[in-house]
Amino acid sequence: MPNPNMRGNVYLPLDIFNREKIKELKRHEAIVETYINETEGIAVVKYEKDLIDEDEVRGLALKIEKTDSHSNNTIYSISCYFRSHNRYRKTRLHL
């Protein structure tokens, strides 16, 4: 039986993470289980801590959007949360 201390959970808000990518995470060797909670608007991803860390899990599921395309320049953006004054605030980063 696997050691439960070697597993972690990541809680991902569905407004900034791609639902389809979350479903596909099950194919990754380090992902144990995924679950989408529609009521709370979050996805829960259980992962093996010795194979992948929390930031890598988040990176695999990020929603990257094509936001603009002018004069041969394509702009992509991601939404993310950052911590400020003990609160999380949502912002958009342009890539």
What is the third-level CATH name, the topology of the largest domain? Answer: Alpha-Beta Plaits
- Describe the global form: globular
Mean pLDDT: 76
- Strand order within the widest beta sheet: 1-3-2
The biggest beta sheet is recorded as: 3 strands, antiparallel
Structural class: mainly beta
Radius of gyration: 15 Å
CATH class type of the largest domain: Alpha Beta
Distance between the termini: 43 Å
Q: Helicity range of the residues?
A: 10-25%
H/E element order: EHEEHEEE
Instruction: Tell me what portion of residues adopts beta-strand conformation.
Output: over 45%
The total domain count is 2
Task: Characterize this entry briefly.
The protein has helices spanning 19-24, 54-61, and strands at residues 7-13, 31-37, 42-48, 64-70, 73-84, 87-94.
Provide an overview of this structure.
By secondary structure, the chain is mostly beta strands. It folds into 2 domains: 6-62, Alpha-Beta Plaits (2-Layer Sandwich), CATH 3.30.70; 64-95, no CATH class. It contains 2 helices and 6 strands, in the order E-H-E-E-H-E-E-E. It has helices at residues 19-24, 54-61, and strands at residues 7-13, 31-37, 42-48, 64-70, 73-84, 87-94. The chain has a 3-stranded antiparallel beta sheet with strand order 1-3-2. Strand 5 (73-84) and strand 6 (87-94) form a beta hairpin. The N and C termini lie far apart (43 Å).
